[in-house]
Amino acid sequence: MTDSAPTPSIVLTAQQWQIFLESLYERGDKLDLREEGGVYHPRKEKVDAYVFSGHAEALRSEEVDGDIWGTLEDIEETADSEEEAWAKIVAFYLGRGCVLMEVLPEEAGEMPEQWLISEPLARRLGLLATA
Fold it and tell me: Which superkingdom, per the lineage (predicted)?
């Protein structure tokens, strides 16, 4: 990450990321917490990074293809490098009420994953403190 990159609003270790994913369930097209307010929702389908990616606005991950160039085209931007493309994508979504989440790698020297998700989703899933 360059010095000019925005600071992520949410930072999770690889272990926290796995625990977080295990705490989720998906019903239809809605992602939510499996246990909330004393109500427990059984897991019918495992929520993994791929399932979570369907609820993200954009992502940069080794595990899940975030299609950075396709996303850049969708926001009608161009770039000369993947770094520049991702910076433009981040700026676009941060300007539209999204938050940047970073998942730190398990191994030193690996790049962290970055996910852009809507602020309401981040709050509903307990990633941001509620106001």
Answer: Bacteria
- Measured from the Cβ of residue 17, the count of other Cβ atoms closer than 10 Å reads 19
Q: Between the CA atoms of 91, 8, 121 and 83, what dihedral angle is there, to the nearest 10 degrees?
A: 40
Supply the pTM of this predicted model.
Answer: 0.86
Residue 20 CA to residue 126 CA, distance in Å, equals: 9
Tell me how far apart the alpha carbons of residues 111 and 63 are, in angstroms, rounded to a whole number: 11
Q: Which of 27, 72, 15, 85 is nearest to 51 (CA)?
A: 27
- Cβ atoms of residues 125 and 99 within 8 Å: no
Give the pLDDT band (50/70/90) at residue 108: confident
Question: Distance between CA 93 and CA 100 in Å, rounded?
Answer: 9
> What is the band of 45 on the pLDDT scale with cuts at 50, 70, 90?
confident
